[in-house]
Amino acid sequence: MSFPALMVTLVMVTGIIWLIDSLLWAPQRSKESKEPLVVEYARSFFPIILVVLVIRSFIVEPFRIPSASMLPTLHIGDFILVNKFSYGIRLPVLNNKVISIGEPERGDVLVFRYPKNPNIDYIKRVIGLPGDKIGYFNKIIYINGEAVIQNVEEKDATLLAIVSARSELRHEQLGSIDHDILLDPDRRLMEGETVVPEGEYFVMGDNRDNSNDSRFWGTVPEENLVGKAFFIWMSWDWNSGGIVWNRLGDSIN
Which of 57, 84, 86, 124 is an active site residue? Predict the structure, then answer.
């Protein structure tokens, strides 16, 4: 059972127990009778579980970064917050959109349910919007025939400690979003062109040569969207002795 399904189930069970007690059992109990333990637990936990469910389903959800596919933007061990209403309000478990608020923009860092296995959450950057023609040749993105400009940058000491010395750090702009990417000059991955279907999005990792993304398995349907990543609230690295203090509170661009 997924976490959202578990939370919904707990809300229903505790709520029903509390309701039945209020309508049937409580009126029949004498003032001296002790409230049943199951009712006490249900009454205590119902509002807490409900608040957690509402916040996690409709406002913000925490995620942990498990891989290096979004370096240098996100590191392994980063704990991030995802805005759940950026792309519309969805019902928990069913994932049906009930209120349309906005759509992903080019350059957004997007959390979504992996199309090949919706039980797994992925995080990548939005490259192509519905209707775009996306090309990828010689490590350069082409959007509707226009190349996305890249500028070479110097890696700092922090990045040098976690990536190959031969990797290249480049600066890229997608729409209004400025961000850095990593390239491996020794690796050649899939190249080609594709047109993004309506209602779907083409996504890529910032660690371009170490990312399993739309180049390999296709585009992300709108119904798989989870939310927009916007904030690093914690970062943990065992090799650095625990908390990485200089990453706490960073916004995600």
Answer: 124
